[in-house]
């Protein structure tokens, strides 16, 4: 190979290297330590600010959601081991009041926390049963005992006064 | 550890804090646990402010001639 040819090859290689450099340049500009940190900072701010709507909606919900006091039934109308359905805190939210064998009143929203099927009181077994997928809840605590539900039933706070049972509040997470 | 490196690393700490806060805010919102939501939002906003401060500290040190 002559010297001229060698020189040409050498220059070609140089050009190729330049070409590769040019190809990588875009990545070098956009995918480097500085850009990575800027993107991470952007993500931090975005995730941090994403919490604010939940705070605002919670505040607005508080403003609208006054604690209601609703009469459910007379004590005498509900025998031991019986249950009664009612709606609380709104008409769209069904609930169940149970007078347990220990003569205690308990109430829960009776939409199953699995797939929202209605929950019924089973007197014989003294449990709350969701018949759709056989979800069992403890009648004393509202906690799931068996089946697919993982969360407790929202608990309705009760007050017994002058022979009547009143719903006075609700705890969605409890126990 | 110098200031620049501390600022650099703290941003990743704040991103972790914000992810946990967002998770708590969502769980608290759907579980009607108002206190939990407010706590998560407060932590997230403070964390975001600190992350912003850290970012500018890093930026100042990084682009210093």
Overview of the structural elements:
The complex is a heterodimer of chains A (175) and B (65). With 175 residues, chain A is α+β, with helices and mostly antiparallel strands. Chain A has two domains: 3-64; 70-171, Rieske [2Fe-2S] iron-sulphur domain (Rieske Iron-sulfur Protein), CATH 2.102.10. Chain A is built from three helices and ten strands. Chain A has a six-stranded antiparallel sheet with strand order 1-10-9-4-3-2, with no helix packed on it. In chain A, strand 7 and strand 8 (144-146) form a beta hairpin. Chain B is an all-alpha fold and 65 residues long. Chain B has one domain (3-62). Chain B is elongated. The relative contact order of chain B is 0.19. The chains are: A alpha+beta (175), B mainly alpha (65). Chain A binds chain B through residues 34, 37, 40-41, 43-45, 47-52, 54-55, 57-58, 62, 154, 170-173, and chain B through 8, 11-12, 14-15, 18-19, 21-22, 25-26, 28-29, 31-34, 37-38, 40-41, 44-45, 47-48, 51-52, 55, 58, 62.
